[in-house]
Amino acid sequence: MTDKAGYTTAVGLDREINAWANTTMAAVLGGFAAIAAANTLVMTDLARRRELGVLRLIGSTRRQVMGMVRWEALLVTLAGIALGSGIALATLIPIMNALTGEAPYIPPVVYGSFVAATLLLGWASTSLPARAAMR
């Protein structure tokens, strides 16, 4: 690597490997966080088996109970999205200002896919166990 082209190639390869490693690490950490959140929601719903049974005994229909569970899941999931976004921005803004002097840019499609995945995870982690608990 004595010439400029060799150095540029080496730097480009290092950046490419670092970007891949960062993406992989973020995916692994996100996966662990998703598993932990899903596990917590599933265990919470299964622990509410008696509560759901009492609601059925006092006259609530299965549809009403599942509607309540879905609304609760939506509320908790939206609160998690808002808190997570706020915490991420609170840490990203100072870091980006210090490094580049600019505000962080999050592509809307990427953010939207995270929100959609979070909503799907929250719905599945509460609706499916609640349905099983009411059997």
The largest sheet is: none
Rg, rounded, reads: 22 Å
- Compute the number of strand runs: 0
Beta-strand percentage range:
under 5%
Instruction: Indicate how many domains the architecture comprises.
Output: 1
Give the low-pLDDT segments: none
Helix content: over 70%
The helix-strand sequence is HHHH
Helices, by number, come to: 4
SSE class: mainly alpha
Straight-line distance between termini: 69 Å
Shape: elongated
Q: Determine the mean pLDDT.
A: 88
Provide a concise account of the structure shown.
By secondary structure, the chain is mainly α.
Q: In words, what does this structure look like?
A:
The protein is mostly helical and 135 residues long. It has one domain (4-133). The protein is elongated and about 80 Å long. Helices cover 87% and strands 0% of the residues. The mean pLDDT is 88.
